[in-house]
Design a protein that fits this description.
The protein has 207 residues and is of the alpha/beta class. The chain has one domain: TIM Barrel, CATH 3.20.20.70. It has an 8-stranded parallel beta barrel, surrounded by 4 helices. It has a two-stranded antiparallel sheet with strand order 9-10. Helix 1 packs parallel to helix 6 and helix 5 runs parallel beside helix 6. The longest helix is centred in the last third of the chain and has 16 residues. It comes from Lutispora saccharofermentans. This is N-(5'-phosphoribosyl)anthranilate isomerase. Its EC number is 5.3.1.24. It is an enzyme of class 5 (isomerase).
Amino acid sequence: MRTRVKFCGITSEADAMEAVAAGADSLGFVISKSPRQIHPKSVRDIVMKLPPMVTSIGVFVNENAAYVEQVSELCKFNAIQLQGAENLDEFSFKIPVIKAYKINAPHDLKQLNIDTRICACLFDSKSHDAPGGTGITFDWNIIKGTIFPKPLILAGGLTPANVSEAIRVLRPYAVDVSSGIEKAKGIKDVNLMHAFVQQVRMADRSD
């Protein structure tokens, strides 16, 4: 199966276009407070220029459901990604929802209750200092072999140096990277973006 690639934390049109050229399937835009935060109106302008088949995802952390859906409509997001402790009962699910789950130890997996209304489950490492993405890997073997009710998206500390191994271990539906392809917070590195996608494709061919 071809592993999908999501580049998250896009903050400029230039980075968005470079991400598309590198082969990203999806772009993530962080609307909540973050070093990679981008204004919804800027996102809308970028999304309007994306080519067909490249999806846009709005990333939110503990925001009001009505606000999330209002912004998502403004930006014409294809999906929303919830990174915090949101109450899913407050959402209408008119837009597909990706829910992030934080994992550091086997007991974290045992305590999971994955909502079947979501379109995919994203696994990231747990950090008390980072309610959003952490940029830190977790032990992939914790979830290896587990069958989830929704497609698996792997995040947390992925880079061109380790994404091939991550795919070999888990064979996820998609991989999600932000800091691992940056030269500074919120600014992507063209060479790292291309290298990341190349490593993903090499891993796919190795199966």
